[in-house]
From TrEMBL:
Superkingdom of the source species: Bacteria
Entry keyword Electron transport: no
Major location category of this protein: membrane
Domain Fatty acid hydroxylase: 113-250
Topological category with respect to the lipid bilayer: Multi-pass membrane protein
Name of the protein in question: Sterol desaturase/sphingolipid hydroxylase (Fatty acid hydroxylase superfamily)
Cellular localization per UniProt: Endomembrane system
Record-level GO BP terms: lipid biosynthetic process; membrane lipid metabolic process
Ranges annotated as spanning the membrane: 38-59, 80-97, 109-129
CC terms in the record's Gene Ontology section: endomembrane system; membrane
Species for this entry: Chitinophaga niastensis
């Protein structure tokens, strides 16, 4: 019985309907008038869309178990090994850094705008490092390993990525004055949108979302981010507001005449958990072992993926430059 109770609780947690069930059982719906109550209504949206995406794929005979198997396996394993690590990391950063905040903010609309711009900057920094620092890429690559795009991809992360991401994002936001209540509201909104932009073509074929494509980061932009096409590599690091991608020159629109190729550039087996989860760490270890001298070994850790001590670099920047030069000829 304990097993089925645990399974039930995990299912309720995944669907995000625990608080809604509690309200139904108690008959107390006043919680819907609170911020937490509103969040409880929004939380099931992404799991519902994921189920709808799967059902629609089944109806149109486009469902492939391999498109969803690995993200779900990773989600289940992460639930056992990293359940509270990220929460602890956020709480630690707030406790240590809040007293050093440069300014003070409140739950006013103008501070919300300020906080969101700061949060998006902190997300850009974390995400940029995740692609430009080899060690961080080893953690982030699990998320890029799937070779199709669907809502289950949002659950495919190495268990240490969320803690290091939240340390960077929370530290920047707290130091720049985004107070914890405001930060938690922004994190919830951004997390919900960040999940939604992984929606696949089975549910939304054109991810541009009409006029929204000119205002915010849409599923189309995030499909570009997950692509291994040379033109698309290391672009669209933001989550909702595209301001910082435009500031730092990493913004890229989806081209209608270019078919997106998902996945990572190295040869890998997307159906092998060990390759998806630990493959990049293993490749880094092999490069460090064969590198001559301490300096080269350390550089493999901090330089971008594709850097080589031999000078035969194959970084995303060089691959893109070669592609653009070829396009001009």
């Amino acid at each position: 019985m304990a097993f089925f109770e645990t399974l039930y609780q995990e299912l309720i947690g995944f669907l995000g309907i625990g608080q809604l069930i509690e309200m139904y059982q108690t008959g107390n719906y006043k919680a819907l008038l609170t911020l937490n109550g509103i969040f409880s209504v929004i939380s099931p949206v992404i799991p519902f869309l994921l189920l709808l995406e799967i059902v629609r794929a089944l109806v149109y005979k486009k469902f492939k178990i391999e498109d969803y198997k690995m993200p779900f396996l990773i989600f289940v394993i992460n639930r056992f090994i990293s359940r509270f690590i990220s929460i602890a990391a956020v709480a630690f950063c707030i406790g240590v850094l809040e007293k050093y905040a440069l300014i003070g903010t409140t739950l006013k609309w103008y501070w919300f705008i300020y906080g969101y711009v700061v949060w998006e900057f902190s997300h850009f920094i974390y995400h940029y490092f995740g692609h430009k620092v080899r060690l961080f890429w080893c953690l982030h690559s699990t998320h890029h390993a799937p070779q199709t795009m669907n809502l289950s991809v949002t659950y495919a992360h190495f268990f240490l990525e969320a803690p290091y991401a939240d340390v960077i994002r929370t530290s920047i936001c707290i130091l720049l004055g985004v107070n914890p209540p405001l930060l938690f509201i922004i994190m919830f909104i951004d997390g919900t949108w960040g999940s939604f932009i992984h929606v696949g073509e089975n549910l939304i074929k054109d991810g541009r979302l009409g006029f929204l494509n000119r205002i915010v980061l849409t599923p189309s932009h995030h499909r570009v981010h997950h692509a291994k096409n040379p033109l698309y590599m290391d672009t669209n690091f933001c989550n909702l507001l595209n301001i910082w991608d435009k500031v730092f020159g990493t913004f890229q629109q989806e081209k209608k005449d270019m078919v997106i190729e998902y996945g990572i550039s190295r040869e890998m087996n997307p159906g092998n958990f060990w390759d998806v989860y630990f493959g990049e760490l293993y490749c880094l270890w092999k490069d460090i072992r064969k590198a001559p001298g301490i300096k080269s070994k350390l550089l493999y850790i901090v330089m971008p993926p594709g850097w080589s001590h031999t000078g035969d670099h194959k970084t995303a920047k060089l691959v893109k430059q070669a592609f653009l030069q070829q396009e001009q000829h």
